[in-house]
Amino acid sequence: MIVTSLEKITGTLRDVAWGSGRSRRFLLQQDNMGFSLTDTTVDAGTRVTLQYDKHLEACYLLSGNGDLTNEETGEQHKLEAGVLFALDKHDRHSVYAHSALRMVCVFSPALVGDEKHSSNELDSPSSY
Question: What is d(CA 61, CA 93) in angstroms, rounded to the nearest whole number?
Fold first, then answer.
């Protein structure tokens, strides 16, 4: 059984500043769950464009509001508390945060833990 808290992981290697917010990684590959679970924030007033070639991701918005754009199709969606979006096709997407966003995100396969968001994907210095 794994029991932890946001307080326990804040300020550790599982608390990753990614340039436009933070990714607090509750579950990683080393936890042997087959997926990762994060508490992720996006700073107000920022726009990020991302695409994950090695991971699928689902995000559930807890607070804040913004816009999500599918960069391939131009389709746009409003983001607010209670909205889920899933990047089921390794979708290139952008998020604009009108106010600070906080979400729970699930990654499959699991993150190693040292990945950081770059302009288009999660980069990892690990051989993974």
Answer: 16
Tokens of 38: 């994060």
DSSP label at residue 30: G
41 contact partners, CB below 8 Å, separation of at least 6 = 21, 22, 100, 101, 102, 103
Cα separation, 34 vs 55, whole angstroms:
12
Tokens of 124: 């990892």
Count of alpha carbons within 13 Å of 52, Cβ hemisphere only? Answer: 20
The pTM assigned to this predicted structure is 0.89
Lowest mean pLDDT among 84-88, 93-97, 105-109, 116-120: 116-120
Tokens describing residue 1:
């059984």
List, in order of start, the domains of the chain with CATH numbers: 6-112 (2.60.120.10)
> Based on the number of CB atoms within 10 Å of its own CB, is 15 exposed (0-12), middle (13-18) or buried (19 or more)?
middle
